[in-house]
Amino acid sequence: MTEKLQKVLARSGHGSRREIEAKISAGRIRVNGKVARLGERIDADAQVRIDGHEVQIKPEEAVICRVLMYHKPEGELCTRKDPEGRPTVYDRLPKMSGARWVAVGRLDVNTSGLLLFTTDGELANRLMHPSQQIEREYAVRIFGEVDEAMLQRLRKGVQLEDGPAKFNTIKAAGGEGINRWFHVTLSEGRNREVRRLWESQEVQVSRLIRVRYGDIPLESGLPQGGWTELSLEEVNYLRKQVKLPAEQRSFIDPRHKESKQRRFGKIRKATAKRKQQLKQQKPRANKSKK
Q1: Which part of the chain is the RNA-binding S4 domain (predicted)?
Q2: What's the pLDDT tens digit per position in 112-161?
């Protein structure tokens, strides 16, 4: 039985389907020694190389779909490598052999909060597709005068440079004067959409935190820079949203489950150690530039 190359590679954790299609178009993937074509089908015995390196392809039954929740801090980039050496969201994720983490969407460098990663590129691709309309919730601090007429415009819809946009809901969440917090929801993930919606009303977003993706909230107490593995129930909730079959196995071993307090304590220590290492690296980098 043959399957499409991009589907097999996405399932095997070598990127989202969109990323793999871009690599095929750029001639970076070879199958059995020949440059791959978009839409090409392969069987289980095919030899596949990406950028000259042979990669493992896995049958569907051999792959466990894993999903991580990551609490992204401000200042981290949603890219695998930064030419300037700045920290990225991939730096702290657990290392794997024969697969890699695929981000479900992205958050800009100045936005913090919930970011999902999965080993299943097909799941990531479907979750990111605009047709899915999965609701995201953000906590946002606004600098500027906000009145009811402005909120009504943002609920009804405004015209941005890439088309109309609106918030599904807007709820006041504290603050006073010209510094107020709101919780907003929307069902798409266009670039900087939350910030651009508020900026269209001539106010400024001073803090932006994603606190929910679909029915999955940012876990209470999860430190910034920390990650936690989603349960099988949560993984299958995501798979159901995009019409993928349920996963039967979990990477989490219930026999070795730690308490949340102990697990998050370890994350805080590791995060503090990482921050200290980055501080030590900065003076060295500045010296090398002189």
Answers
A1: 3-65
A2: 999 999 998 889 989 998 888 899 999 999 999 999 999 999 999 999 99
Q: Are 115 and 127 in contact (CB under 8 A)?
A: no
Whether the pTM exceeds 0.70: the reply is yes
What type of residue sits at position 2? Answer: T
Catalytic residue among 51, 108, 162, 215: 108
Residue 18 pLDDT > 80: yes
**192: its two tokens:** 């900087």
290: pLDDT strictly greater than 60: no
Residue 287 scores a pLDDT above 90: no
- Give whole-number Cα distances, 58 to 37, 219, 244, in Å: 20, 32, 17
* Strand extents, DSSP E, 144-224: 158-160, 163-165, 169-176, 179-186, 204-213, 216-217
Which residues on adjacent β-strands are paired with residue 216?
A: 213
Looking at per-residue pLDDT, the higher value among 278 and 131 belongs to 131
- Structure letter (DSSP) for residue 195: H
Is 51 a catalytic site residue? no
Q: Tell me how many degrees the CA angle 49-25-19 measures, rounded to the nearest 5.
A: 75
- Tokens representing 178? 């010209």
The residue written with tokens 């909230």 in the block is 217
* Measured distance CA(167)–CA(136) in Å, rounded: 10
| Cα 204 from Cα 143, distance rounded (Å) | 5
Contact (CB, 8 A) for 3 and 42? yes
* Residue 115 φ/ψ, nearest 5 degrees: -135, 130
Tally Cβ neighbours within 10 Å of residue 86: 14
Rounded to 5°, the CA angle 23-227-128 comes to 40
Q: Is 53 left (phi over 0), alpha (psi -120 to 50) or beta?
A: beta
HSE-CB of 261 using CA atoms within 13 angstroms: 0
Residue 131: both structure tokens together: 């047709």
**112-118 and 204-213: which strand pairing?**
parallel
